[in-house]
Amino acid sequence: MDLSLSTRNVSGPGGDRTVVEVGGEIDVYTAPKLREQLVELVNDGSYHLVVDMEGVDFLDSTGLGVLVGGLKRVRAHEGSLRLVCNQERILKIFRITGLTKVFPIHTTVEEAVAATD
Predict the structure, then answer these.
(1) Start-end of H helices in 5-104
(2) What does the alpha-carbon distance between residue 94 and residue 82 come to, in Å, rounded to a whole number?
(3) What does each C-alpha distance from 66 to 12, 37, 115 come to in angstroms?
(4) STAS domain spans which residues (predicted)?
(5) 59-68 pLDDT, tens per residue?
(6) Which of 56, 44, 62 lies closest to 83, judged by CA?
């Protein structure tokens, strides 16, 4: 399966956010596409990102590495990277790896955009 990416800007109580909607599989073959998108957004000055993973069917360690790399990039600019995920099989990966302590994970895009912490 392929990876689909789209971005949009939204405003919330915490300020402007760039939402990256991800669909399909994030694996060793498609993760570079997501990495390029995150790097491009940060290079263009988008430091507060919301990655909407509701449409993600599969996530492997390469995909996790891309997300961690994206988090490091935005934090270098005092930014944030929030995840939107409500699929148990994907959430389980974050719990097993301990990344629930690293990423703020929300159940909706609206919740992630409204978060100010």
Answers:
(1) 31-43, 61-75, 88-97
(2) 13
(3) 26, 10, 23
(4) 19-116
(5) 999 999 999 9
(6) 56
Domain spanning 3-112, CATH architecture: 2-Layer Sandwich (3.30)
DSSP type of residue 28: T
Report helix angle 31-43 to 61-75, nearest 10.
10
Tokens of 54: 């509701």
What are the residue ranges spanned by the domains of the chain? Answer: 3-112
DSSP-derived letter for residue 116 is -
Unique residue bearing structure tokens 């990876």 = 3
Q: What is the pLDDT of residues 36-92, one digit of tens each?
A: 999 999 999 999 999 999 999 999 999 999 999 999 999 999 999 999 999 999 999
Q: Is 15 left (phi over 0), alpha (psi -120 to 50) or beta?
A: left
pTM over 0.70: yes
Residue from 102, 25, 88 nearest 62 by CA? 25
CA 66, 105, 40, 73 torsion: positive or negative? negative
Reference 82, options 58, 54, 115; nearest CA is: 115
